[in-house]
Amino acid sequence: MQKIGVFVCWCGSNIAATVDVKAVAEAVKNEPGVVVSTEYQYMCSAAGQKMIQEAIKEHHLDGIVVCSCSPRMHEATFRKTAEAAGLNPYMVEIANIREQCSWIHKDMAEGTEKAIILARSAIAKLRNNMPLQAGTSAVKKRCLVIGGGIAGIQTALDVADAGFEVDIVEKRPTIGGRMAQLDKTFPTLDCSACILTPKMVEASQSEKINIISYAEVEKVNGFVGNFTATIRKKARYVDELKCTGCGLCMAKCPAKKGKNEFNMELDNRPAIYIPFAQAIPNVAVIDPEQCNKLKNDKCGLCERVCTAGAINYKQQDELIEREYGAIVVATGFQPIDANPLNELGYAENADVVTSLELERLMNAAGPSKGTLVRPSDGKHPHTIVFVQCVGSRCDENTKRGKPYCSKICCMYTAKHAMLIREKYPDTDVHVFYIDVRTPGKNFDEFYRRAVEQYGVDYIKGQVGKVANENGKLMVQGSDLINGEQITIAADLVVLATAIEPDPTARSIGTMLTSSMDTNDFFTEAHPKLRPVESPTAGIFLSGVCQGPKDIPETVAQAGAAASKVIGLLAKDHLVTNPCVAGSNELLCNGCSQCEKVCPYGAITYIEKEVRGPGVREVRRIAQVNPAVCQGCGACTVTCPSGAMDLKGFSNQQIMAEVDAICL
Amino acid sequence: MENNAKFLTETALRISGVNPRKCMKCGKCSATCPNYDKMEYHPHQFVTMVDRGQIEKLMESDSIYMCLSCMACVQRCPRGVEPGKLVEAVRLMKIRQQGMDHKGPRDIPPMVDEKVPQQLLMAAMRKYRK
């Protein structure tokens, strides 16, 4: 028979005012196994803990029940107390008689009765407890950052600063991401490239940071502290170590019809190209879809002009396999496709552009060298209409766009409108809006400046139709405040298109078994208290992959994610939770159902010879990796044969609790 | 809201299956409406008035016949409010109120002249199409 001690806490008057604690202690005194039962005013205090420890030693207890507050509050405290007295910490059970009893009852008799039941059920569970040992696993001191935009760069810089090795994997030929495409940044109007490129240079020069550009993560195995990633480095057809970035090949390349992705396809680039002047690495890449040599084995001009001998048409994709302790997702966003919203005429009219296209049109390094012109005829537009909330804030069932607010559009439209009025005062600027949302430091002041100082015309209402009449864009919209439908003859229409997660996010989320919401944004472990961690241990979130954000918020989150990574990598070993699932190989029939429901990818299958009473055969059996399992219990309730069980919360223990309440 | 107004509102919402509270006052419906100028109460106002229980006012207005039932507002509404269905519901309430004497599709052709509002025909076709 076990020797169990029961300790009932008053919690001052928190419990004692509604529960007769003495009666509870008295009532469970004769439960099977209970050898000592007592109460005290504050069980969590030093004196209360000492009382428990002395009782453990005096009565040679092999399990204790503490009737007190929620286990979320003090389970860890009492486990430590028990461990210090030589008891296995998993032989401690908490009966929650505060949050689940005294705080929600008024009547003393009722409260006491319920407290006794809760105490009995904890005792019943404890009788089935087994001592558990927490294991440890080593931590690989290296961090993988997926995505080389401002979020990824900032996280990498901060992690490297703490002395850990970081690999940035970027799918495009250069790091820099969306921020590199922007012209100015709100609300200070400083040049985006001027503040971003020094960070890009810093990342490339850091001894701890290794930039793997033009590469994608293909496979991730393992668990927190011990990930193994396979990275596919796509063939550039240019030797990264030899290329000096002189640009001679770009000038000579005869295939100049490639769509310039960096300029939002507003102009063309050669088949061999460096995305932009400040690209890092400053190395050319050949677009195999464009290159005549790669397609038809004709030309080869770039190889002949390259003085460094860097061109290599035979280059193959390269697979890199590395081990990491932590992974940071910083996959960023893209603007949605405005084509399906056909009333806005984006597909038919060159002069209906998205805001990101306008950024390139206004940028000194853009296709028009910073002069604001219409894409159709290169003329200066005199009337410009901005349309807000294009594809944002839509009911999901309408299939017209995203249900969320994209957050950044109000501010960048105010910026665009202001910059245009500043540079071209002869331009009329109208903005159709639903709401103007500008919370943030100096944000609303910025928007008001656009209205009051620069005379931007904000119209409350949406746009119903954009029609091209002899080169003029007739914008028909609502002016709800004046109660009229108005039509503005515009030269340029700018759509503030919603932003959505990068299309690669979903496959990366699946690869990392990291949960996502219905919009493909990564979910955080807790929406308020753990905003930069994924629910999957060892995976951290940085930037817009977790939700729409502006640059300051992205940088802040990137730093926060880095600090969490540093906290993880600073440890040599991780203590694993012993309350993990395990399968009974005699019962398991290898049906794979547990593997399908496991949110952490902790379950694999092995072929194993099973020897049991009357059984001797090779079977497919589920095996749980205890370092990955988080003890959620999804597999135990799914298992049709009852083979899966969760240590510390076994079916037997739970049923004993239920019996104690019901019988 | 007095009892009759409440009853009328509930009827309009039941017939249309529309929840006007989803509206976030963006004006897309009125921006789209091809007959905006002829509508005494414009589509976005129509939605708000239903929400406020002003159905009687709407039933007396020409707006319910001026609506072309083109359903552009229904298609474009980013919130899925479907203003055109509300207009149709109020129109039906008006028709049903006047003595339950609505006609089947076969009764209509001999009666058609320029005085019959086109919207009535549209409404009848939609109603009896099934």
Average of pLDDT of chain A: 94
Mean pLDDT across residues of chain B? 85
What is the CATH homology-level superfamily of the largest domain in chain A?
A: FAD/NAD(P)-binding domain
Q: How much of the polypeptide of chain A forms β-strand, as a percent range?
A: 25-35%
Count of discrete alpha- or pi-helical segments spanning 4 or more residues of chain B: 9
The counted number of beta strands of chain B is 0
Assign the CATH topology of the largest domain in chain A: FAD/NAD(P)-binding domain
Give the low-pLDDT segments of chain B: none
Number of domains of chain A: 5
Distinct helical segment count of chain A: 19
The major β-sheet of chain A equals:
5 strands, parallel
Approximate shape of chain B? globular
The secondary-structure class of chain A comes to: alpha/beta
CATH architecture annotation name of chain B: Orthogonal Bundle
Query: Could you describe the largest sheet of chain B, including whether it forms a barrel?
Result: none
Quaternary = heterodimer
Topology:
The complex is a heterodimer of chains A (663) and B (130).
Chain A: E1 4-9, H1 13-16, H2 21-27, E2 34-40, H3 46-59, E3 63-68, H4 71-84, E4 92-96, H5 98-102, H6 108-126, E5 136-138, E6 142-146, H7 150-161, E7 165-169, E8 184-185, E9 190-191, H8 192-205, E10 209-212, E11 215-223, E12 226-233, H9 248-252, E13 258-259, E14 268-269, E15 272-273, E16 285-286, H10 292-296, H11 301-305, E17 318-324, E18 326-329, E19 333-335, E20 352-354, H12 355-362, E21 383-390, H13 409-423, E22 428-433, H14 443-452, E23 457-460, E24 463-469, E25 472-479, E26 484-490, E27 492-497, E28 499-501, H15 505-511, E29 539-541, H16 551-569, E30 573-575, E31 581-583, H17 593-597, E32 603-612, E33 615-624, H18 634-638, E34 644-646, H19 651-662
Parallel strand pairs in A: 1-2, 1-3, 3-4, 6-7, 6-18, 7-10, 18-29, 20-27, 21-22, 21-27, 22-23
Antiparallel strand pairs in A: 5-30, 8-9, 11-12, 12-17, 13-14, 15-16, 19-28, 24-25, 25-26, 31-34, 32-33
Helix pairs in contact in A: 2-6, 3-4, 6-19, 7-8, 7-16, 13-14
Chain B: H1 3-16, H2 28-32, H3 43-51, H4 55-60, H5 63-66, H6 72-76, H7 83-97, H8 108-111, H9 118-128
